[in-house]
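Sequence only, no structure available. Ideas?
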Amino acid sequence: MARAVWSGALSFGLVALPVQLFTATESHTIRFHQLQRGTSDRVRNRRVNERTGEEVPPEEIVKGYDMGDEYVVVEREELDEIAPGRSRSLEITGFVDLDQVRPVYFDKTYYLAPKGREYGKVYALLLRALTRADKIGIASVVMRNREYLVAVKAEDGVLALHTLHWADEVRDPRREIGDLPDETPVSDKELSAAVRLVEALSVEWDPEDYRDTYREKVLGLVADKRAGRTVEKGEPPPRSTNVIDLMAALQASVEQADAQDGGEPPPARRTTGGGSDGRKRSGGSRGSGGSGGRRGGDRAKSTPRARELEGLSKAQLYRRATEADVAGRSSMNRDQLIHALAERGGRQRVGRAS
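Reply:
I predicted one. Tokens follow.
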């Protein structure tokens, strides 16, 4: 079970609810150790006194605010004393519509849980009230000697807390970026083709369909170097589209998307995730590796091998695809993984029989 990173009281109006805060996400970033070239010796960072060069133990390190000509030392106890209780309170001061908060303001996500079963009713009451009202609660909280603006939101049967950026932390793109187009002319024909391409490439959102392919390539690089194998270079980035060729590129892209989706051109208007003919669209239908779309996956399900694979989760299927070195597995959805593994198993059985 995860450890709480903060505990205190969430309040709205005169209602108070003891809660605990848990981290909602985890990082799978690959971390490298620093080594001295030509050796296996680790290079470590140490906290040293910049005047004497001697290492300083943690208990002797204090916080100092730079005033220009001197440092003002501030102790942890003094920070707690100037705002007693602030580091243990989470007061909702108002409720707003979710679409009023622009995505750029959202930072990290945490889960809120009641601090004890006896507070379950109050927790459930706030959860259901936010769900029915379709609102989020705006509050502030002090953690790790810093105050955060936060949003409390109902998500999938749990209260989530999103830390928000303060208004003065969000940059104005018009001031920060010098090459933003203002009133660049776009023809109706170009716009129509671009909209058609967006609709042709529309998919149903399923986070399980997406993987960190760069991380996989880095792990593959490490494995290849360790085994003494030749490391294949990746493809270069796409070249910028010449403005003169823009319309041709749009038309070719639409035709390619139509062909990959079964050869039928999309209607003039279609909703994300499906067309007027009721066909279900999926981002995995464009996966690489020749594993086919859903129609190919449906045919593969008729085999005993595929029926066996149906009982596995997508994560288990992906591990098997990795072990079998299935090409294009990182962009496949669950049906395509089943199809590819079933085909791979069929070819292996044929090879053994011959």
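The chain has three domains: 6-25+82-169, 185-233+241-281, 288-354.
Hope that gets you unstuck.
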